Amino acid sequence: MSETRTSPGPEGPALQDKKLVSWKEIASHLGREVRTVQRWERSEGLPVYRHEHLRKSTVYAFAKELDDWIKKRQPKDDPEADAAFEPEPDVGDVLLGSENGDDAEIDVPPVQPSPPKWKRPVLAAAAAAVLCFAGYGVYRWIHPRILPPEKVRLVVLPFKNLSGDPKQDYFSAGLTDEMITRLGNLDPHRLGVIAAESSNRLSGKPLPEIGRALDVQYALEGSVRRDGNHVRIDVQLIQVSDQTHLWADSYNRDLNDILLVQDEVGAAVASQIQLALATATETSTSRTAIRSVNPEAYDAYLRGRFYWTNRGDVRKSIEAYQEAIQKDPQYALAYAGLASSYALLGQVPYDDMSPTEAKPKARAAAERALQLDPLLAEPHAVLANVSFSYDWNFEVAEQEFQRALALGPNNPTPHLWYGHFCIARNRLPQALEENSRTLDLDPVSPLFNTVRAEIYYHQRNYDAAIAQARRTVEQYPSYPLAYIWLGSALREKKMYKDALEQFSLGRKLSGGHPVMIALYGHALALSGDAAGARRALADLHGLAQSRYVSSLYFAAVYLGLGDNHTALDWLDRAYKERNDRLVYLGTEPMADPLRSDPRFAQLLAKVGLH
Question: For 255, which of 26, 68, 229, 414 could close a Cys bridge (C-beta 3.0–4.6 Å)?
Fold first, then answer.
């Protein structure tokens, strides 16, 4: 059944958008066959969304988005462009049927049984029945029933470094991260692979506890012993419920064959838990693994992944990726990692580099990565990030995000950035859905738990934001980002004393990051402490002598002081800097005092927030 959604603009009246909740409704709306729109969604980015379930996913779309997409779709020269294609249905859905009728991912026409002929003699009917069952048995012997596969979840526990050298920890950690990526590409619709951060945080816990915390059925354990360019990897697959060891193997290889080892492990895991291996047309994994790697380049690449995953020093990850590229100029994955690192460095809360410097470098590295391997998900996600937060080209960003999500459905980063894109576009329920997906992949990540509080804040659901942020702070008391949204939600409820306490804690934990100083100064001003707010401004000016400090932070403090004119002056500077947080002004509660100002309306228009 179709629904409608209310889509309020930042200042305009609410709009009703019809929600189509099955492939049949989507196809009917577009006047095409079901299989045609399914192909469009796969190959051309038709905006269709999914709710994940145990054995399948259900789809939905919004009529206006479909109408906009079809208007912009270019006719294909190929006469078969609109022809039906053969989808790859979930076998379980075909055999068992859907719980929700039209919501099933694949629409299967019902089989109509022939009406019984009761006028025949009972004996003949019985004989016919025996023949039918005999025939069915022969059919099943020739075509055995494939049992409906359930979606399963697996965690790759951090590989142990057995080299005896703690300096080699990055190698085992990076190899773990690579194995997570490799397994995540095996059969994304049936296998969910837990991301590295949750795996790392639960390392050392008893396996049953890990299974309960992450809701996984399988665990892959491993160890690495490296001697120069030779590496020995021992791995074993364990069923979590009874800790049965399902499979184990050892690999002694030269480092330049490491990708082949990863593929062999993936194939063995797939065989054990009955997964379908993705083809080379669906993922870059198979094609990338064909060529051997330069050992020195791979070593540097793993160091880059290590620094990126731990977010300890993004600049070190950049140095490592650059070293990998120097050793192997054709190394697509190193360019992809470099692109992600530059994107991260040029935006809040890291913003250690001006966006005008960081984002073009991110774009260049992503484009080079895709020249070398167009099926990598990560560079598409970076191009999407740059398009919406730097270029303010939301149409291109949407296309790149859809491509990234299709190529890397088990990679949490595209879901994270797409969720922020949805915040900027005032699609907050969808932002929550993307956040749920990241938490499904990385349940104990402090970042993804914090982002949920951020979304509640933009929804102006401050009580939910406070509750979510408090839970995150209680679980991760040393994670500075959580204090931003806890303090911000408290501030909007005019609980200034409590807000200042949270911002002060965040400032200490972050080592005096400019964003914390700005939020603290803004809250001081609102609480009536104008002198304290001006001291915060002085602190920001002092920091700006030695590092990049966004103009947005000065604007925030002046906004708290009620000096809207000066705040807008600083926002104009932030516009020239292409600050990534400008795209959130449409839903940012802090900006409410400016909404009636024509200068602010002009700024929103320039950023594309009409």
Answer: 229
Cβ-contact 472, 479 below 8 angstroms:
yes
Report the pLDDT averaged over residues 477-484.
96
Domain shared by 14 and 93, yes or no: yes
Domain boundary among 246, 263, 292: 292
State the amino acid at position 480 in one-letter form: P
Residue of 44, 45, 49 whose CA lies nearest to 23: 49
Give the pLDDT confidence of 500-531 residue by residue, as tens digits.
Answer: 999 999 999 999 999 999 999 999 999 999 99
Q: What is the DSSP letter of 9?
A: -
Give domain status of residue 316, yes or no: no
- CB-side neighbour CA atoms (13 Å) of 257: 11
Lookup result for tokens 């791979």: 298
Q: How far is CA 402 from CA 158, 162, 497, in A?
A: 30, 41, 43
Residue-wise DSSP of 160-176: EE-SS-GGGHHHHHHHH
| pTM: predicted TM-score of the whole model, two decimal places | 0.74
The closest of 484, 523, 518 to 502, measured between CA atoms, is 484
**How many domains does the structure of the chain reveal?**
3
Q: What is the CB neighbour count within 10 angstroms for residue 552?
A: 24
| Containing structural domain, residue 561 | 512-610
Confidence of residue 130 (pLDDT cuts 50, 70, 90): very low
- Minimal CA–CA distance to 498: which of 527, 536, 457? 527
Final residue in a domain of this structure, among 103, 133, 168: 103
